Amino acid sequence: MILAVALALVSALATNVAFLLKQRGAVLAPSVEVTHPLRSAAALFRSKWFALGWVVAVSAWGLHVGALSLAPLSVVQAVLAAGLVFLAVLAERFFGFALGRRQWIGVVITAIGLSIIALTVGPRGDNAPGYALAALIVVECTVFVLATGLAVLSSHHGYLRARQGLLLGAASGALFGVSDIALKFLTHAVQGGVLELVSPWTGAALAASVVAFYASARGLQIGPGVEVIALTSVAANLTAIIGGILVFRDSIGAGTVGITGRMIAFVLVIAGAALIPAPLRAAEGRAQE
Fold first, then answer.
1. Where are the alpha helices (DSSP H) in 27-132?
2. How many C-beta neighbours within 10 Å does residue 51 have?
């Protein structure tokens, strides 16, 4: 469990570095066009900042998969939620964003929530009898449809269009969460042999990741950078934590005190994360490509 938490923390740090690098590159690249996905992807990767961010993101993904293979999904995602602490510090110290008091309060609350989670770890959810296949199908399909629909609607309605960057960030985060749930399933399945990777859930993980890639890139282009990243993180963590509990029967603690403490911790992590998305202004003189 300690190794899994360590991997998740390093993954969280790398993930937020990757997001900030990709945001810097995305705003310098031509607009992402759904009708020209290959051309849009090529344009994004021609930006050195976006390409570097993507390389860092792949490394973070590898660490994430390692953490998922060692610990319950909800625990890994709760640790990753603490990545918002890294996001706040990195954004202000190295990427020229100015955070207000509300954002720092959110950082502290998130850190407290993470500490409570670490102190109330119950039995591993992996010890539960299997996983709930019906819940897996329902959660994956429902979130995929809703998130994709939100991404599409955000460009067709005036009220939503004004907040399109934020909505695309939330939609991409939910889709990243869907991918995480599918990956957790595959870490179970691969124990029966590598051929188990030839699965509809591999396709689900890839499909969710591809849609999330374009939604996230467009959101970073047109929305306030740190706010979009924060919403992406919140949506991904919330989706995956719920999936871990419903699908993989992840523990929510041992005993009354443990269960209560962990439930409070999950609320604190999400509440703290919710405080971070607020008006943020890039400081003058932010480094350009």
1. 37-45, 48-68, 73-81, 83-94, 101-119
2. 15
Q: Which H or E run includes 97?
A: strand 97-98
Instruction: Give the residue from 63, 86, 84 showing the smallest Cα distance to 3.
Output: 63
Q: Which two tokens stand for residue 84?
A: 């918002």
pLDDT digits (tens, 9 = 90+) for 98-127: 777 887 788 788 778 776 765 665 554 444
Contact 12, 86 (CB under 8 A): yes
Note whether 248 and 126 are within 8 A (CB): yes
* Structure confidence at residue 192 (pLDDT): 60
Structure tokens at 211: 């849609």
Instruction: List, for residues 160-179, the tens digit of each pLDDT value.
Output: 666 788 889 999 999 998 88
3-class SS shares of the chain: helix, strand, coil, % to 5: 75, 0, 20
Beta carbons of 276 and 92 less than 8 angstroms apart:
no
pTM for the whole structure: 0.80
3-class state of residue 213 by DSSP: helix
